[in-house]
Structure to design on (77 residues):
């Protein structure tokens, strides 16, 4: 909870000062979630993998052959 909201509630008398301090201590002691950071890194890794494989196939399509690429794509899909 944002500190200014907590202070405003305490100033209006909606929560007791002890409760305000308990909430403040609880909020400052919570662990930080890495969910979105890890998810972004995962998506970035998948994107870079696809870009790299796409460039590799595009650059070597004459050596690999169209049919082999189609079989590989169909096999992974």
């Amino acid at each position: 909870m944002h500190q200014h909201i907590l202070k405003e509630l305490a100033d209006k008398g909606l929560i007791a000062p002890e409760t305000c301090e308990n909430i403040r201590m609880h909020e400052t002691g919570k662990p930080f979630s890495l969910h979105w950071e890890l998810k972004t890194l995962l998506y970035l890794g998948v994107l870079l993998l696809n870009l790299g494989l796409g460039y590799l196939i595009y650059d070597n399509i004459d050596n690999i052959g169209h049919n082999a690429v189609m079989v590989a794509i169909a096999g992974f899909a």
Remarks:
- The chain has two domains: 1-30, 33-77.
